[in-house]
Structure formats: structure tokens, C-alpha cells
Amino acid sequence: TSSVRRNGPKFTQLIVGARSVSVDLNNDASLLIDIPDALCERDKVKFTVHTKTTLSSFQKPDFSVPRQHEDFIWLHDALVETEDYAGLIIPPAPPKPDFESPREKMHKLGEGEATMTKEEYTKMKQELEAEYLAVFKKTVQVHEVFLQRLSSHPILSKDRNFQIFLEYDQDLSVRRKNAKETFGSFFKNMVKSADEVIISGIKEVDDFFEQEKTFLLDYSSKIKDSTARAEKMTRSHKNVADDYIHISATLNSLSVDDNTALKKYTNVEGRVASDEELKLTELLRYYMLDIQAAKDLLYRRARALADYENSNKALDKARLKSKDITQAEEHQQQCLQKFDKLSESGKRELTSFKGRRVVAFRKNLIEMAELEIKHAKNNMALLQGCIELLKSN
Amino acid sequence: MAASSRRNPPPLPGAENQDPLSEMAGEDSDEGEDIFVGNSNPVAEAFQPDTANGEEPADLFSEAETSTAVNSSITTSKSNGVHSDNENDLFAEVSVELSMENPSTTAKSSGAEFTPSLTLSATQPESMEQLEEEKDEDSFDMEVAVTNPEKIGDGMNAYMAYKVSTRTTLPMFRNRTFSVWRRFSDFLGLYEKLSVKHSLNGCIIPPPPEKSVVGMTKVKVGKDDSSSADFVERRRAALERYLQRVVCHPSLLQDPDVREFLERDELPRAVGTHTLSGAGFLKMINRASDAVSKMTIKISDSDAWFDNKLQEVESEELQLRKLHAVVDSLVNHRKELCGNTAVFAKSMAMLGNSEDNTALSRALSQLAEVEDKMETLHQEQAASDFFILAELLADYIRLLGAVRGCFEQRMKTWQRWQEAQSTLQKKREVEAKLLWANKPDKLQQAKEEITEWEGKVTQYERDFDRISVTVRKEFLRFEKQKSKDFKSQIVKYLESLLQSQQRHVKFWEAFLPEAKAIA
To answer: pLDDT-based confidence at A379, cuts 50/70/90?
Structure first.
């Protein structure tokens, strides 16, 4: 199937099984997107984005383009900065591919090669390659889901930049962030921390938004915490699995012939750790980002409200001074419209977001529980077999 | 096994031997004052299993002895080696299989047959098979246990007392079942005595567990936390394994010191153990031979077997140390996993509280509970990792050290023989010179010396042959025991893993409907 080599393994027909973070998004036959292929070159990943469409807005019905992670970020930022989409939850940008952990471990393994037996080394190397592969799968998945979120959104799927992203068969880097935009996002990030203050400071008239605000602020911090803890837990689990590898390797050289059980058990323990990782941690991590996107929506609405309130004040002032009244009136009207539009669309988005979240959690938790049961039963069968073997000897 | 502090000495079994306790020799750095001194009126608790009125002793074997009329007379030991094992039998977990090459305990065993029986309920079927495999070996009923650690005294003078219980059909013991109280220094003292007597014969003397000033201090100071409890339990288990190995050894079992240790109500305080731990004593014995051994690499070609085995032992010891380090790491990582899982469970509970969808909120809370249960599983597993695997390895690292000592002892014996031979040679040369110089007086003396040394040479050669036989026998016995030990411990470990996985399945199966109920 697939093996990881240092310079440029290619994963053709990579089957990314765990698409459970979001519900099945690739349903609408009019625009189907997937990432069937990815190339890893010195930790830089090149994704093959494949589109199948019946829409006439596209030049061809079936085509593929190569894209890098930075291209996805460009697309995301472009959407965020589009005024028209202020009332929408923009799907969170996929995180940067992070091969740090397996890379570091691979380095350590190379250094310690002399001190371990050939078998132990091979085993560890295999495990690391599996870890590498898991990181790889994960990053392909989150990039794919990002695109699929867009394609399944009634408004965002029609976005011009999105189309360019899917279709443009040359290097996108020309269109990507120039210096100004980079600065823009820098300030954007700085301002983000003021989010909480602005959102919580707003005097809310709408019950729905009042509730959402309270909920999202609280939930956001809790899920951030849970994500961090889940990551720590699955890391510990991986450590335990690694120890088992060392144990079984050492047992080998001891000519104590009871190590097959522990060896097999290692594989299972290791796999449980990475499955837990894929399911639970990814779920939490994804929704942590998604919640942030929802909060961004609230922020924008709060800003719009603030603008509206300011425009009211300006109108009053203008009336007082009898100067530029029409202008002020117009401005005020615009602000009100914008705010209303945001509120209306925001309510829709947040409601569907809620539903989406519940469904995703359900799917994920079920799959995780089923996996845990399956693995535990496998372990049991394995252990029982080995115990019987030992006892009968 | 909580350490409880007591002011009075524990009830001593029986009032038979009231040996006045001998001198309290000096302060043991970490064992403190012996409270047994001056308190020779034990609280009479019916520990004697052979009271005429059939009063049931409140001891470990009571359940097994309910119906049998226990006979206190040694000489009429019937061949009822098979004791019915109830589930509550303390020894259900003990897997000590004993074997003797010749049932040559004492003459007064008067034809009593030792029924090959193994009263190990947990492992009985397998043991029977093993038994059939062993030819020319009888096994007999001998079980020891170390239990009920109790803290005697307070503060820095406190110490732990352990109950040592024996159950046996061997005629050399006064009773069938009996218990005594011993402290750690007593165990060390036993090792010391056995070493002095037997290591010169090439016996592999099982080493006792290590001393630990840090561990003991915590206990004394009364730190009533899990680390003290762990330490005490670890020590108790180690002492038990140590004793089991001692009584498992056919020659050592014959040693009166062993008998005394098991039977005698009050032992004279072991002297000088504050300077000697098990390893320390071993080092002392071997220090002398070390320097000389290094010069003598090979004895002779015919002894290639010994050289090979010694090499095997050395490389195995290295591997075990390595393995032990990894298992240690496993224990630590699992404890970490434990902690992280607990923290994660809490955060899940918080998230569940925060969640506004009712069904999902409930499911998240359930998930938090499952993860809590996982934490317990991990904790128990860590204990298994440690007590089954890590301690097994630690024991065998020490044992291999003892085996090496054995081989070195043989080296020493060989050297002594060689040296005697060269001395004899010199004496002969002297005699030849005197013969030539014609000095009859001195010649006479020279001849006497030659005779003396000829005798020594013969003696030392015989010693060497004998020790070679013993070492070989001991080593083979050791290997067999080791392989049995490892197998049984690994099975035990796998079974603990199995149990853990079973509960794993149970917990997640209970959670699954909750997840499905989300709407």
C-alpha cells in the first residue's frame, strides 16, 4: 500500500478513512471535491485537489490541480475578508502540516541506533513510519474537509476565489498574500484577542444571540482545555506503546520464548493510541477551531452593532448641528441593514452549526466506542491464545 | 496492608520457647529498637494448630485444617500430603514447587512417604504435568508466606514486623502449621548465616531484598500515604519470594538456621546487619577472590562448560538490567497516562456541563465516567507491571549475581588447589636439596611437611571436584527454576492484561448506547 520514504513518498489512492469530523459533506453531485493524492517532500506537502462538477461555471467537468498548504490559507483569508460573508461562519483554516514529532523521534532513533538490536531498531522505525503516515493522513483529511465544507455551503460554494482555487492550473503563489495582506492578517490576529471584550461588552437585545454568546464563550474555553488534555493523554498512550516495543525487542534477545504475546500486543496498543488520536482528539481540535469561527461571526455582528450604534450617535450629532444629515441618515440605514443582514444570516448559520456539531459528535463518539471495543476484544483473543500456548508448553 | 503503629509487641505464637532474648546488639541504622526485649509474656493467642480441644487457631491455615485432626507428633506423619485447598487458602497464589533428590531429611522419618503432592490450587494441573516430567525427584509439602506487616513502635525507632507462616508435612518441624514474627534484619541475618556456611560449597544462595533507608524512613516517620504503603507491600512480597526460594532449595532447607528462622518464637537479634546488606555481604565474600580471579581466566579445557555458562550468565544479567530499565519506564509512563486520563476525564465532565444539547451533554458526562474507569484500569495495570514484571526482573538480576558468586567460589577453590600443588612442589625441591646436603633432622621435617601438603593437595582436589559437581547441579536447578518462574510470572502478567481488556470491553459497551442516544 503506502510506505514513507524520506524524500518524497507518494500516496496514491490514499484512503482517508476517518472523515468523521464533519458529516458526510460530499453529497451534492453538482460539486464533488476530494484529495485523492498527496506528495510529501521534505515535510512540504503537495495536495492534488480533484473536482468533479456539473456546474457550467467551471470550464471542465473533471479536473485536478496541485495545491500547497499556503494556498488553502490564502483562500480562507480571502473568504474571511469578504464583506458579503460577514454573516457566515467561515470554515476554520486547516492547520499547518506538523511532522515535528515523528521527525524528532526519527532523529533520536538514528542517534540511538548503535545501542539497540537490529530488530528493535527495525520495529521502532516501522512505528515511526506509521506515525509519519498518521500525521500525513490527518493533514490530508483536514484540508479535504475544509474544501468540502465550502463546496456544501450554498453561498460559499459560489465564491469566485473558491473557483479559482479549484480551477486555476498555474501556481497560485502570485495571487497569494502580498506584504499588505500579511500585515492585515497580523493586525487581525492582534485584534482577535479583543474579541471577547467586545462580544461580552455588547448590550444584546436578541435572546437568541444572548444565549449563543454565553454558550460559545464558555464552551470555547472548555473545549480548548479538553483538546489539550486529550492530546496529552494520547501522547502518554503512545509512550506506553513504545515501551512495549522496547520490551519485546529485549525479550527477544533474552531467549525467553514468551515474548510473541507482548510483541503482538505492542502493535495493538500502538494502534489504539493512534485511533484514539484520530477520533477523539481530532474531533475536539476541529470543533475548537469551528467554535472560534462561530465566535468570529459573533464578533463581526457585534462590530456591526457597534457601527450601527455609532452611526446613530453620528446622526443625532448631525441633526444637532444641522449638517450632513442626509449623509448620516444614509450611513445609519446602511449600518442597520448590515446589522440586520448579519443577524439574520448569523442566526441561520449558528443554528445549523449547532446541529452539525451534535451530529458530528455523535458519529465520532459511536465510532470511537466501537473501535475501543473492537481493539479490546482483539487484545483479549490475542492474550488468551498466548496464555494457552504458554500453559500448554 | 496498612501499616498500623502499635505499642505492644504482637502476640507471639505459643508459649513454648521462652528463650530470653539475648543482647540487643547495637542500633541498627534503620531498624530501630527491638521491642521484643524485656517482653517475654506474650499475649496468649491460640496460634497452635494442635491444641487438643480442637480450638481453631486464628491463623492462616485454619480454613484448610477444619476437619483434619492435626497430630502434633512428628514421627507419625501420615502421608496426607494432600490438603484440601479452599479458595481462601492463603497459598492459593503461591506457586512454589519443591523437589528433593533424596528424601533424606532425618532418619526418624521412619518410613513416612512423601506423597508427591502439590497443594497449589491455582496452578495444580500444570504442576502435576511438571511433576511427571521430573524423574527421581520427590516433592513435598512446604509452603511459606510472609504477611501482615505491622509497624511496631513510633518515630525513628520503629520497625516493621512481618508474620512468617509455614505449612508443611516435613517431620523435621515440630508442627504442621505455625507462625512467627520476624523483622527485616532477621531475614538479612538468615542470609548471612547461610552464606557463611554454604557459599563455600558452591551453593547458589538466594539474595534477600535490598535495604532502603529512604523507604523505611518514610514508614517510620508515619507518612501514611500510598508511597509508604507501596514500599511496605513491595518489601513484604520480596521477603516472601526470598523465603520461598530458600525453602525451595533442598540443601538449604536442611540447614538448622532455616528451621530456626521459621519455627523459633524469638530469634536473637541479628548482629551487624547494619553494615551488611545482602549485596554488601556478597561483595565482601567476593572481594578477596576478585583480584585473584582476574588472573585466572581459564581453568582447563575440560571445564569449557563452566566458562560458557559463566559467559551466558554475565550476558543475561546485562540483558535483564536493560529490560528492567525499560519496564521501569513502562511503569512510569503508565502512571503518567493514569494522571493524564484523570485530568482529561474532568475536562470532559466540564465540557459536558457546558454543552447545551441535552443528549450530547449526557453522553459527554458518561464519557467522562468511562475515562475515569480507564484511569483505574491503568493504575491497576501499572501495579501489575511493577509487581509482576519489574520485581521478577529485579529478583533475577540479584540471583544472577549470586550465581556468578558461585562460579567465582569454584575459581577460588581451584586456585587453592593449584597453590597447594605448587607449595608441595617447592617442599619436594627443598627435600631434594636437603637430601643432597645430607641434613637428616631437617630432612625429617621436610618429609613431614611433604606429607602434610600431599594431604592438602588431595583434599583440595577433592574439594574442587566436589564444588564443581555442586555448582553444575546448582546451575541446572537454577536454570530450571528460572524458566519456570519466568513462565509463570509472564502468564500471570498476561492474565492481568487480559482481565484489564475484559473490563475495557465492558466499560465501552456500556457507553455505546449513550453515544447512540445522542440526537
So the answer is: confident
DSSP state of A37: E
Other Cβ atoms closer than 10 A to A379: 22
ipTM: 0.82
Cα distances from A387 to residues A189, A258, B60, B130, B272, in angstroms, run: 58, 9, 30, 17, 46
pLDDT of residue A48: 92
Cβ contact, residue pair A365, B350, below 8 Å: no
Q: What is the pLDDT of residue B337?
A: 92
**Which residues in A lie closer than 8 A to residue B494 (C-beta atoms)?**
261, 383, 386-387, 390
pLDDT per residue over A6-64, tens digit each?
333 443 333 343 343 445 566 677 899 999 888 877 768 889 999 999 988 899 999 99
Q: Quick check: B114 and B102 in contact, CB under 8 A?
A: no
Residue of B nearest to A241 (CA): B330
Query: How many whole angstroms separate alpha carbon B367 and alpha carbon B378?
Result: 16
A230: distance to nearest CA of chain B, Å? Answer: 6
Of B347, B360, B490, Cβ closest to residue A226: B347
| Amino acid in position B315 | S
CB contacts of B495 in chain A (<8 Å) are: 383, 387
* Buried residues in B279-299 as b, exposed as e (16+ CB within 10 A): eebbeebbeebeeebeeeeeb
What one-letter code names the amino acid at B401?
G
Task: Name the pLDDT band for A375 (thresholds 50, 70, 90).
Answer: confident
| Dihedral pair phi/psi, residue A64, rounded to 5° | -135, 150
Question: Which residues of B fall within a CB distance of 8 Å from A243?
Answer: 326-327, 329-330, 333
pTM for this model (two decimals): 0.72
